[in-house]
Amino acid sequence: MGECLRKTCPCLKTLWDRIYGPSPTDGENSVKTDSDCTGDGLGNMKSDRYGHPASAPLRPRKPAAALYTALWNFEARDGQELSFKAGDMLEIVSSSGDWWSAKKIDSQGRAATGFVPFNYLARAESVESQPWFFGKLSRVEALSHLMSAENDNGSFLVRISATDSMGFVLSVKSQAKAKHFKIYHTSGQFYVDPSPQFASVLEVVEYYQTHPLSTSDLLRKPCIRKMPRVLPPPSVDEWELPKEQFTLEKMLGGGHFADVYSGRWKNHTKVAIKILKNNADALVQKDFQLEVQIMKHFRHRHLISLFAVCTSSAPFYIITELIEKGDLLKFLKNPEGRALDMESLIDMAAQVADGMAYLEKHNSIHRDLAARNVLVGEGYVCKIADFGLARVIKEPVYISDDKKIPYKWTAPEAIGHGRYSGKSDVWSFGILLYEIVTYGAVPYPGVRNCDVYNFVTRDNYRMPSPPHCPQVIYNIMRSCWKAEPEDRPTFKILRHELENYQGN
């Protein structure tokens, strides 16, 4: 009788079990359908699918915690941060922003929680945790890593191309050059050559460690990975820090209203410190505050990052990340910069376009884009700096009567009518591109600053193509110098064109 009722009305299984006892067929191999005991057909919950009382609403299942592996040692600098060593396993509690909340359990079972820098971690048991995986990296950054003295021929890395459409790339040191091989991904298979094909990138790497690539030797050791910079503190709302936490070291440069020093925070983290001089008037101090507000709101790989401010007493400080190689103009003129080939130079230009595309997307203008205001770091990473004239704009055009104008870099509508926009920044980018491909030459050579405006507007003059400049790059320059702002490309378009540049 009980078995008959169970088959006829399976949703009353709990009732039949109480009356007749458990079914002899129940066991670890019994099959329960999705309709088992979830209700009485009228929306009234009776029990869950495992026969447990459902007097309270079902709790959603907690998703499995994300486990990450530490790639480097990290020493906490205050009570909010969590120390760890390379190889430690961390359970990520929250992964928002540059600092993640994590839990670490030590060998004695004790748990500790705190903030950890996201760029010191890689997801456990994934390609990201492999010593040869470097994440998103441009060709010129890969070159910088592979050419370091610690790496021998055959050193290699796998990267995700900075050009979105490229996917995985295998970069290998070969003599004094780097060779780059696209890893194709089709129908679930990964391969460099059409044959053989593999189920994962890991299998591709393992195969070429015992079989030579078509034009290269075997893959030897993974490229030496450089430890990333420690990020600004996790409490992003607490930008104000006491001056006593900062130590000044070397003076990097100076101007009429501010000097810039290298220094350290808590004798640990390298930073750059911009100090507003006491002779600055109220207008300069207002610009200083505007610069701080701009930097607080923006975070991008190719924009200089704000670390902190010290404004409780004069002189005021702006603390930013320290970029080792200095400004792009000086870099292009020194032996290291002059050794870069055209493809590497264009890659640097693409990085600047990427940072400007971010500002463009956020309705912001820079107004002083030039090689002198771009900084170059390790791996030839370029970061736009000096936001003293930058503005967030609500209208398409920003009107200013500021007479302190870098004439050779400024769009004619900005010089003549004080009309600044994203498209006036595009004009300046064209001049910056000229600086890059000429290794820092002064634009409009032989022309005085005061004559540039008439040259460009009255005579419709445009600089000729620099020596050895590829025609496609000169065409991009000319597109930036269209007389009508609306005819100039966006930074999004410029970024795409430069990222897809292929040298001869």
UniProtKB/TrEMBL annotation:
For the keyword 4Fe-4S, the answer is: no
Stored Gene3D superfamilies? Phosphorylase Kinase, domain 1, SH2 domain, SH3 Domains, Transferase(Phosphotransferase) domain 1
Query: Which superkingdom does the taxonomy of this entry point to?
Result: Eukaryota
Q: Which UniProt keywords apply?
A: ATP-binding, Cell projection, Cytoplasm, Kinase, Lipoprotein, Myristate, Nucleotide-binding, Phosphoprotein, SH2 domain, SH3 domain, Transferase, Tyrosine-protein kinase
Which EC numbers characterise this protein's activity in its record?
2.7.10.2
Any one GO cellular component localisation term in the record: nucleus
What are the SH3 domain coordinates in residue numbering?
A: 63-126
Q: Which class of enzymes does this protein belong to?
A: transferase
Presence of keyword Electron transport: no
Domain Protein kinase stretches: 246-499
Alphabetized Pfam families for the sequence: PK_Tyr_Ser-Thr, SH2, SH3_1
Q: Which GO terms describe its molecular function?
A: ATP binding; non-membrane spanning protein tyrosine kinase activity
The chemistry this enzyme catalyses reads:
L-tyrosyl-[protein] + ATP = O-phospho-L-tyrosyl-[protein] + ADP + H(+)
Q: Where does ATP bind?
A: 274
SH2 domain location is 132-223
Query: Region Disordered: what ranges?
Result: 23-56
Q: Can you say where in the cell this protein is located?
A: Cell projection, Ruffle; Cytoplasm
Q: Which family does it belong to?
A: Belongs to the protein kinase superfamily. Tyr protein kinase family.
Q: What is this protein called?
A: Tyrosine-protein kinase
What organism does the record attribute this protein to?
A: Sinocyclocheilus rhinocerous
